[in-house]
Amino acid sequence: MAESASPAALSRAMPREVDVAIIGGGLVGASLALGLAGTGVQVLLVENIAPGSAAQPSFDERTTALGNASRRIFQGLGVWDEISREAAAIRAIHVSDAGRFGFARLQAAQHGIDAFGYVVPNRVIGAALWGRLEGAKGVDVRVPASVEDLDITTERAYFTLVTAAGAREVTSARLLVAADGAHSAVRAAAGIEASIEDYDQVAIAAAVKGDRGNDGTAYERFTPSGPVAVLPLRGGGYGTIWSCTPQRAAQLLQLPDDAYLAELQRCFGWRAGRFRRMGRRASYPLKLTRAATTVARRTVLIGNAAQALHPIAGQGFNLGLRDAALLAEVIAAATGDVGSPELLRKFSDWRAADRGGVVRFTDGLVRLFGSRIPGAGLVRNLGLLAFDLSPPAKRALARVSLGFGGPTPRLARGLPLQ
Ligand SMILES: Cc1cc2nc3c(=O)[nH]c(=O)nc-3n(C[C@H](O)[C@H](O)[C@H](O)COP(=O)(O)OP(=O)(O)OC[C@H]3O[C@@H](n4cnc5c(N)ncnc54)[C@H](O)[C@@H]3O)c2cc1C
Questions:
Q1: Does ligand 1 have an atom closer than 6 angstroms to the CB of 323?
Q2: Is the distance from the beta carbon of residue 181 to the nearest atom of ligand 1 less than 6 Å?
Q3: Residues 239 and 209 sit within 8 Å (Cβ to Cβ)
């Protein structure tokens, strides 16, 4: 009599098949999943920490500055109406260097635009994306869940999906998307190396309330220990991000709220009025993490898994969202295999200029404004003055949110995905 196969052996022999498996449902992975909903592609989204949980690392206490291209992408994904209810428009940008004469001021209206971008609490973005993912066509969402035993062959990627309750399901995908953040386990499992440069800085993010409402100005102030960003919030407060040395951050994180606010005020000044109350502080060590390549066999990296940046110019998520929008476009347009080497090469080639440009721009800003080389301060200030006086330079900054090159994703241009 023939022996019958065990359930485990059967599931290995007949794995569940999907077209695209996205590992990581943070800001970028959830956006990609939503972009692919209803395109006919079978998507599995795996996230190991439920949105709304205090431990969720993507939808946390931070606020994110979204450029206009990101607004258009969110419009295309059908989430902007909900997000915009909690968004503050950036109508002006003020950049200054502590203790020096140079500063630059940009007004959106002078560039013929309504706003340079919008500041939104990350939790609001998370709630909008995940709310929309509920019942999204063709997207199977698993949370909290993780993947194990990753085995990537030339034909498919195989893995075991493990739920919090311990259920295990052998699964295979034509394309594996690493959207699992800067410490991407998928990137490592795919054998992709990443370079890490430590900026020796820690960012402290906190929402603060002042003695007067904001007028839609976003401030960036460069100080000897690092930059301070003060971003307008809906309702009149500010989202602050103070980047400083790890030692200074450790001291600042110990302080009671009023003492912290006094230190922040001393460092930033009085442009935005007196800071009075604040929310919870959260801290982030700052590094530039760059994957050696964004594609490998049956695998693609997007968002922080591909490149994690210093928040100095508020570009990390905007860049990652363009990764997601272009990947959704390329997959939706594919007539055959969505994980083919040709498709992956095309995606990687198309994203290279934008990715390289944003990484160089952001890293260059950190180094220029963090430099203690004699004369660097003068160069910075002349640069800021020149910037304030030079219409082309201002126009260049106003266009930063469109991306730094390569094809602009259709969604970012306000067009439908297909
Ligand atoms: C202080 C600060 C301020 C910032 N401000 C801005 C800004 O104003 N504008 C801007 O554009 N960018 C900003 N950024 C950058 C932005 O936050 C990141 O670019 C963005 O979070 C990247 O999103 P992501 O989804 O790629 O990665 P992450 O946010 O790291 O999300 C990764 C997700 O994957 C999940 N995950 C991890 N491992 C696994 C696994 N094995 N299995 C399943 N799921 C997994 C995690 O739980 C998480 O949900 C800022 C960053 C910092 C630190």
A1: no
A2: yes
A3: no
Q: Which domain holds residue 272?
A: 197-285
CA distance 76 to 65: 18
Which of 285, 312, 328 corresponds to the end of one domain? 285
Q: Quick check: 33 and 25 in contact, CB under 8 A?
A: yes
Q: Rounded to whole angstroms, how far apart are CA atoms 399 and 408? A: 12
* 360 and 393 share one domain: yes
Report CA torsion sign: 352, 185, 29, 175: positive
**Does the beta carbon of 117 sit less than 6 angstroms from any atom of ligand 1?**
no
Query: Are residues 246 and 301 both part of a single domain?
Result: no
Q: Which of 28, 159, 183, 231 to mutate to test the pocket of ligand 1 (most atoms within 8 A of CB)?
A: 28
Structure confidence by residue, pLDDT tens digits, 97-132: 776 666 778 888 887 889 989 999 999 999 999 999
Residues 320 and 179: their CA atoms lie apart, in Å, by 9
Q: Which amino acid is at 2?
A: A
Q: Which amino acid is at 412?
A: A
Write the CB contacts of 159 (distance below 8 Å, at least 6 apart in sequence).
Answer: 21, 147, 148, 149, 150, 151, 170, 171, 172, 173, 176
Please give the Cα distance from 104 to 107 (Å, whole number): 10
Give a yes or no: residue 93 inside a domain: no
- Two tokens at 150? 């990753």
Threshold 0.90, pTM exceeds: yes
241-270 as b/e: b if 16+ CB within 10 A: bbbbeeebbeebeeeeeeebbebbbebbee
pLDDT in tens, 49-104: 998 898 999 999 899 999 999 999 999 999 999 999 999 999 998 888 776 666 77
